[in-house]
Design brief:
With about 80 residues, the protein is mainly beta. It is built from no helices and 5 strands. It has a 5-stranded mixed beta barrel with strand order 1-2-3-5-4. Strand 2 and strand 3 form a beta hairpin.
């Protein structure tokens, strides 16, 4: 899983049948310091109702139809992060 921040929305007027009705969000991976990692931005299917600014967990290949396509999916909205120092 990837810890990320939602940074935007993706609008696609044409989608595969499996993605119709799904929201697509732009997510940027976070490093150990919880800062965005440069060049680690992805598009993910939102399955939990996340919004811009939310910290989320993204599963790299969590798809309902894995045999048809591989899609990144947002699987959780993170409430708190506790780091041991």
């Amino acid at each position: 899983m990837i810890l990320a921040t939602v940074t935007g929305h993706v609008v696609a007027t044409q989608k595969s049948d499996e993605l119709r009705g799904s929201n697509l969000l732009l997510v940027t991976a976070l490093g150990d310091d919880l800062e965005p990692i440069k060049d680690r931005t992805y598009v993910a299917v939102d399955s939990v109702g996340a919004g811009v600014g939310d910290q989320v967990l993204v599963e790299e290949y969590f798809a309902l139809h894995k045999h048809d396509y591989k899609a990144m999916s947002i699987v959780a909205i993170v409430e708190k992060i506790h780091q041991g120092r």
